[in-house]
Sequence to fold (376 residues):
Amino acid sequence: MRRWLTNVYHLGLKELTSLVADRVLIAFIVYSFTVMIYTESKGIKTDVENASVAVVDNDRTQLSQRLRDALLAPQFRPATLIDRSDVDGLMDRGLHTFVLDIPPRFEAEVLAGRSPILRLDIDATATAQAGIGAGFIERIVHDETAAWLATRGIDAQLPVRAVVRALFNPNLESVRYQSIMSLVENITMISILLVGAAVIREREHGTIEHLLVMPVGASEIAAAKTWANGAAILATTTLSLLIVVNGVLGVPIKGSLALFLIGTAFYVFALTSLGIMLATVSSSMPQFALLSMPVFLVLSMLSGATSPLESMPEPLQYILQISPSVHYVKIAHGVIFRGAGLDIVWPQLVVLAGLGTAFLAAALARFRTMLARHSG
Fold:
């Protein structure tokens, strides 16, 4: 066992040396964990910002003016007053995402205790803003109407008032969520590509024959590549989380950084094992890249980060339990956003360890077959 560990250690150092010598790969890793995370976090927004809104004011009263003035930046651009006949043409040209239609006698109906109907036209092609923006406008109308009634001492007519408080993201800033999910996506991509490229590089450079004449086995070679590339990814993740996410983007880390990194280590172990298995199936680097792309897309898009797992078809929910990204996203959400401890995320850690072990066993079987083919 001691000899096995020694061989794994020295082979891992050789792997790290090869990685450091590959300047293009190092540049890609640095870019992925810095510029890519920053641009995705700032550029991709799920919240409402600078949405174009117009108002059809058929009431022209103090209350309708108050509603127009309440549509403020940064969620909305200054509201444009338009005629009802212009709504369809302006929305067809994509000039307005929202049009609030205030009916005649709106203020009088409110004062009379009735329930007048406001019409809100939404350009649903702006999917990122449509649903959330409608909720914003609905809340603005409710709050401004209640405040206006309160100035007249008749707010008691409203028996129920909704008060919304966001616990983990008070300002509902998408950058907090997007930065962590971008980090998760880059960990997924780099973990698969890095170790897979290392195996392919051994074959293409002919150094696999050098390993075959050494007194080392397939398990030692695979374990060395796993720990060396995993350590590089874990170190890069730590720096990216502290410098880019927490430092530059200002995203707070609610829970334990150490616990998150432990979860990351389990996740990287599972993905590097998967990467070795994919590399043994591929015969060249282009083939490995093409094989990795659909695997990465499935892991990323069906991780539960963008769409909740519960909203997917039930058979798919069971199948996705073998996806490491599903369990890692739960760890990231729990630790980073909600401050969860080990007592909350330990089931996901156990599952990741089990998946990594299964992937590694399959990778070793394929790896031995590949080495036997080369030695023959």
In short: The longest helix spans residues 342-375. The radius of gyration is 28 Å.
